[in-house]
Amino acid sequence: MNQLIETLAEDTAITGALPQSTVVPIDNEPMPRLIVEPPLPGPLAQGVVFIPYRVENLRILPVAGPAARNMSPRVGHLHITVDDLPWLWADFGQSNTVVLAGMPRGQHKVLIELVDAEGNAFTAETVTFH
User: What is the pTM of this model?
Assistant: First the structure.
């Protein structure tokens, strides 16, 4: 496990909050960016959707809550919504690929949002496919 994650996990488990020493101003950091590619055609033809993405100026980590708001480098995660459904899922992994399987035939829309540790969106991209 990454040393930063281990330290945060230990400190959070002991105190219930992120240690103050890890929170530093982020005023001069560039805004986070989300770059999303179209689904890979090979798997899509087989009924599985692989949507590659990359993130700049933000680390995707399993850290959440207001104490992480001003961490540097910034931390966050993805919110993923399919076909405008009223629910979404949060992705704290670092796979750089959204994978969907078992989708019914037809046109679909996937909204991928890059959010901060409290779920506030920095940016979003939408991918549509058949």
Answer: 0.78
Sign of the four-CA dihedral 41, 43, 48, 52: negative
Q: How far apart (Å, rounded) are the C-alpha atoms in residues 116 and 121? A: 6
Q: Compute the distance between CA of residue 53 and CA of residue 99 in angstroms, rounded to an integer.
A: 11
Residue 14 in tokens: 């002991």
Q: In angstroms, what CA-CA distances link 12 with 17, 20, 38?
A: 5, 11, 38
Euclidean distance between CA atoms 99 and 125, whole angstroms: 16
Q: Indicate if the pLDDT at residue 119 is higher than 60.
A: yes
Tell me whether the omega of the peptide bond preceding residue 62 falls within 30 degrees of 0, making it cis: no
- From the list 67, 50, 61, the residue with the least C-alpha distance to 112 is 50
